[in-house]
Write a structure and sequence with these properties.
Butyryl-CoA Dehydrogenase, subunit A, domain 3, Ribosomal Protein S5, domain 2, 293 residues, elongated, 4-stranded mixed sheet, alpha+beta
């Protein structure tokens, strides 16, 4: 069985906007979360697209904490020479202002830096919804590609672990009838041996019935059958793929509950040890499932 598309809840996507809205970098990042949580950080000229961007995310993703960030790309002059030129221009502007106002005090470095921080900032027009949402969709699409790539590797790991459990179940299934009968026979024989000298011969039949009744209370057949049912459903969901993280997590919990009860009732080492192995694999499997959407 090969699992179909699974999505990891972790991933990263990035997109640089082309004309007519060039100059922006959109990042889409997702982390593990029980449900869907969307956080959007936008510059002022993108504020009106907040709800539209959230809708794009919710249409693609069911689980995870998703962070969408739009930031401006600074195309201004870079390097020391560029900053020095700006500082000199600010200094000259302040000198002209000082002379115009008749201020005697000299121009200070703090004044130059303050002037730079309040330098003529560009006026940004609101981004056209069609262009902004289209660019946001590109970033989310790249995030989904990343989640799919991680999900594909995750699906292989999960399938391998599920197959390990299936192999252990098959092995136990072959041994159970023989070990069950052996356990019952040994228990009855030991009980008869211990009570042979103190019990009347006509009571032996009654003693055997009571012994078998006691063993029936320790029977773990129901837990074993439920474990197999949950495992079958788990592998079926895995083969179908999609947003199945919650379903797989529930089935893992149910299998853990059944195997724990099964182990507490199991007395034969030939069954007990591989059952403990199943419990250990389920623990590893649950850790991997936490990453599945």
């Amino acid at each position: 069985m090969t699992p179909k598309t699974l999505y990891s809840m972790t991933g990263f996507g990035e997109y640089f906007t082309p004309p007519p809205i060039e100059g922006y970098r959109i990042t889409a990042k997702s982390l593990n979360h029980r449900n869907l949580e969307v956080q959007v950080s936008l510059p002022r000229e993108w504020d009106h697209l907040d709800l539209g961007i959230r809708k794009i995310v919710s249409q693609e993703i069911q689980r995870g904490r998703v962070e969408i960030t739009v930031s401006r790309i600074d195309h201004s002059a870079s390097g020391d020479a560029g900053w020095l030129q700006k500082a000199l221009e600010s200094y000259r502007d302040l000198l002209v202002l000082k002379d115009t106002l008749g201020v005697v005090e000299p121009v200070t470095l703090d004044q130059v830096l303050t002037h730079l921080s309040h330098e003529r900032s560009p006026s940004y027009q609101p981004v056209e919804p069609k262009d902004g949402l289209s660019a946001s969709n590109q970033a989310v699409s790249r995030l989904m590609e990343s989640r799919m790539t991680e999900g594909r590797a995750l699906g292989t790991i999960i399938l391998d672990l599920a197959n390990e459990i299936q192999d252990a179940v098959t092995s136990i299934e072959r041994k159970r009838p023989r070990t069950l009968e052996k356990t019952r026979s040994q228990f009855v024989a030991k009980l008869k041996d211990l009570t042979r000298e103190v019990i009347a011969p006509e009571s032996e039949r009654r003693l055997e019935e009571e012994a078998l009744f006691y063993l029936s209370r320790k029977d773990n057949e129901e837990e074993w059958q439920r474990l197999k049912i949950h495992l079958t459903r788990f592998k079926q969901d895995l083969s179908e793929g999609g947003s199945i993280g919650k379903s797989l997590d529930f089935l893992i919990q149910e299998m853990q509950r059944e195997i724990n009860t099964f182990i507490t009732k199991e007395a034969h080492p030939e069954i007990f040890q591989p059952a403990m192995g199943i419990r250990n694999i389920l623990t590893k499997l649950k850790e991997q499932i936490q990453n599945v959407e």
